[in-house]
What does this fold into?
Amino acid sequence: MERTLAIIKPDGTAARLIGEVIRRIEDEGLVIVAMRMELLSERKAEGFYFVHRHKPFFHSLVKFMTSGPVVLMVLEGDNAISRWRTLMGATDPRKADAGTIRRDLATDIERNVVHGSDGPDTAVYEINYFFKGDELCSGY
Ligand code: ATP
Ligand code: MG
It folds into this structure.
Protein backbone atom coordinates (compact mmCIF):
# COMPACT_ATOMS: atom_id res chain seq x y z
CA MET A 1 0.00 0.00 0.00
CA GLU A 2 1.38 3.37 -1.05
CA ARG A 3 0.26 7.00 -0.96
CA THR A 4 0.88 9.85 -3.36
CA LEU A 5 -0.04 13.51 -3.65
CA ALA A 6 -2.26 14.50 -6.57
CA ILE A 7 -3.08 18.09 -7.53
CA ILE A 8 -5.62 19.34 -10.04
CA LYS A 9 -3.89 22.51 -11.20
CA PRO A 10 -5.57 25.90 -11.86
CA ASP A 11 -6.03 25.15 -15.58
CA GLY A 12 -7.95 22.01 -14.59
CA THR A 13 -10.25 23.77 -12.13
CA ALA A 14 -10.82 26.66 -14.60
CA ALA A 15 -11.80 24.19 -17.34
CA ARG A 16 -14.22 22.45 -14.92
CA LEU A 17 -12.24 19.22 -15.09
CA ILE A 18 -12.38 18.33 -11.38
CA GLY A 19 -15.05 15.69 -11.90
CA GLU A 20 -13.34 14.24 -14.98
CA VAL A 21 -10.00 13.84 -13.17
CA ILE A 22 -11.60 12.31 -10.08
CA ARG A 23 -13.60 9.90 -12.29
CA ARG A 24 -10.34 8.66 -13.84
CA ILE A 25 -8.69 8.28 -10.41
CA GLU A 26 -11.59 6.24 -9.03
CA ASP A 27 -11.97 4.15 -12.20
CA GLU A 28 -8.28 3.21 -11.82
CA GLY A 29 -9.07 1.90 -8.34
CA LEU A 30 -7.03 4.49 -6.47
CA VAL A 31 -8.72 5.64 -3.25
CA ILE A 32 -8.94 9.35 -2.36
CA VAL A 33 -8.12 9.50 1.37
CA ALA A 34 -7.81 13.30 1.67
CA MET A 35 -9.04 16.22 -0.45
CA ARG A 36 -9.15 20.02 -0.19
CA MET A 37 -9.55 22.99 -2.52
CA GLU A 38 -7.12 25.84 -1.97
CA LEU A 39 -5.91 29.06 -3.58
CA LEU A 40 -2.15 28.71 -3.08
CA SER A 41 -0.18 31.70 -1.86
CA GLU A 42 2.98 32.58 -3.76
CA ARG A 43 5.01 31.49 -0.75
CA LYS A 44 3.30 28.12 -0.55
CA ALA A 45 3.68 27.45 -4.29
CA GLU A 46 7.35 28.48 -4.21
CA GLY A 47 7.98 26.15 -1.28
CA PHE A 48 6.24 23.29 -3.02
CA TYR A 49 8.34 23.71 -6.18
CA PHE A 50 11.55 24.48 -4.26
CA VAL A 51 13.49 21.81 -6.24
CA HIS A 52 12.73 23.74 -9.44
CA ARG A 53 13.81 27.15 -8.05
CA HIS A 54 16.75 27.50 -10.46
CA LYS A 55 14.83 26.36 -13.55
CA PRO A 56 14.01 28.97 -16.20
CA PHE A 57 10.28 28.19 -15.92
CA PHE A 58 10.12 28.58 -12.11
CA HIS A 59 8.55 32.07 -11.89
CA SER A 60 6.06 31.33 -14.63
CA LEU A 61 5.17 28.05 -12.90
CA VAL A 62 4.55 29.78 -9.56
CA LYS A 63 2.45 32.44 -11.28
CA PHE A 64 0.40 29.74 -12.99
CA MET A 65 -0.03 27.65 -9.83
CA THR A 66 -1.35 30.71 -7.91
CA SER A 67 -3.64 31.89 -10.74
CA GLY A 68 -6.68 29.99 -9.45
CA PRO A 69 -7.73 27.30 -7.03
CA VAL A 70 -6.14 23.87 -6.98
CA VAL A 71 -7.58 20.60 -5.67
CA LEU A 72 -5.16 18.78 -3.36
CA MET A 73 -5.65 15.05 -2.89
CA VAL A 74 -3.92 12.11 -1.28
CA LEU A 75 -4.38 8.89 -3.25
CA GLU A 76 -3.88 5.46 -1.74
CA GLY A 77 -3.39 2.02 -3.30
CA ASP A 78 -0.81 -0.56 -4.36
CA ASN A 79 1.87 1.26 -6.37
CA ALA A 80 -0.18 4.47 -6.12
CA ILE A 81 2.79 6.66 -7.13
CA SER A 82 3.47 5.01 -10.49
CA ARG A 83 -0.19 4.27 -11.22
CA TRP A 84 -1.10 7.95 -10.79
CA ARG A 85 1.85 9.05 -12.94
CA THR A 86 0.76 6.60 -15.64
CA LEU A 87 -2.77 8.04 -15.56
CA MET A 88 -1.33 11.58 -15.81
CA GLY A 89 0.97 10.91 -18.77
CA ALA A 90 4.23 12.67 -19.66
CA THR A 91 4.86 16.26 -18.50
CA ASP A 92 4.56 17.53 -22.09
CA PRO A 93 1.06 16.60 -23.32
CA ARG A 94 2.39 16.25 -26.88
CA LYS A 95 4.60 13.40 -25.65
CA ALA A 96 1.98 11.83 -23.40
CA ASP A 97 0.43 8.49 -24.32
CA ALA A 98 -3.09 8.38 -25.76
CA GLY A 99 -5.75 8.05 -23.08
CA THR A 100 -3.76 9.86 -20.40
CA ILE A 101 -5.10 12.94 -18.61
CA ARG A 102 -2.41 15.22 -20.03
CA ARG A 103 -2.77 13.95 -23.61
CA ASP A 104 -6.55 14.22 -23.51
CA LEU A 105 -7.01 17.41 -21.48
CA ALA A 106 -3.82 19.50 -21.12
CA THR A 107 -2.81 22.65 -23.02
CA ASP A 108 1.01 22.62 -22.94
CA ILE A 109 4.07 21.57 -20.90
CA GLU A 110 3.26 24.11 -18.15
CA ARG A 111 -0.54 24.03 -18.15
CA ASN A 112 -0.75 20.26 -17.81
CA VAL A 113 -3.82 19.87 -15.53
CA VAL A 114 -2.36 17.61 -12.84
CA HIS A 115 0.57 16.98 -10.53
CA GLY A 116 1.80 13.71 -9.04
CA SER A 117 4.63 12.85 -6.68
CA ASP A 118 7.59 11.28 -8.50
CA GLY A 119 8.84 8.85 -5.83
CA PRO A 120 8.33 7.54 -2.28
CA ASP A 121 10.41 10.26 -0.58
CA THR A 122 8.79 13.13 -2.49
CA ALA A 123 5.36 11.61 -1.86
CA VAL A 124 5.87 11.71 1.92
CA TYR A 125 7.30 15.23 1.73
CA GLU A 126 4.50 16.53 -0.50
CA ILE A 127 1.67 14.90 1.49
CA ASN A 128 3.04 16.41 4.71
CA TYR A 129 3.47 19.77 2.96
CA PHE A 130 -0.31 20.04 2.53
CA PHE A 131 -1.98 17.67 5.01
CA LYS A 132 -1.84 16.82 8.70
CA GLY A 133 -1.99 13.16 9.70
CA ASP A 134 -5.52 13.42 11.11
CA GLU A 135 -6.79 14.79 7.77
CA LEU A 136 -6.17 11.42 6.07
CA CYS A 137 -9.15 9.06 6.05
CA SER A 138 -7.36 5.81 5.37
CA GLY A 139 -8.95 2.38 5.08
CA TYR A 140 -12.63 3.14 4.38
P1 ATP B 1 4.46 17.52 -11.74
O1 ATP B 1 5.66 17.68 -10.85
O2 ATP B 1 3.60 18.74 -11.84
O3 ATP B 1 3.68 16.28 -11.45
P2 ATP B 1 6.21 16.47 -13.70
O4 ATP B 1 6.84 15.71 -12.58
O5 ATP B 1 5.74 15.72 -14.89
O6 ATP B 1 4.98 17.30 -13.22
P3 ATP B 1 8.36 18.38 -13.40
O7 ATP B 1 9.58 18.20 -14.20
O8 ATP B 1 8.38 18.01 -11.96
O9 ATP B 1 7.18 17.64 -14.17
O10 ATP B 1 7.90 19.89 -13.53
C1 ATP B 1 6.96 20.44 -12.64
C2 ATP B 1 5.98 21.26 -13.42
O11 ATP B 1 6.66 22.40 -13.97
C3 ATP B 1 5.36 20.58 -14.64
O12 ATP B 1 4.27 19.76 -14.32
C4 ATP B 1 4.94 21.75 -15.47
O13 ATP B 1 3.74 22.35 -15.00
C5 ATP B 1 6.11 22.72 -15.25
N1 ATP B 1 7.17 22.54 -16.25
C6 ATP B 1 8.05 21.52 -16.35
N2 ATP B 1 8.89 21.67 -17.37
C7 ATP B 1 8.53 22.85 -17.95
C8 ATP B 1 9.02 23.59 -19.07
N3 ATP B 1 10.05 23.16 -19.81
N4 ATP B 1 8.40 24.75 -19.36
C9 ATP B 1 7.38 25.22 -18.63
N5 ATP B 1 6.87 24.57 -17.56
C10 ATP B 1 7.44 23.41 -17.22
MG1 MG C 1 7.45 16.62 -10.74
Remarks:
- The pocket of magnesium ion (ligand 2) is lined by residues 118 (CB under 6 Å).
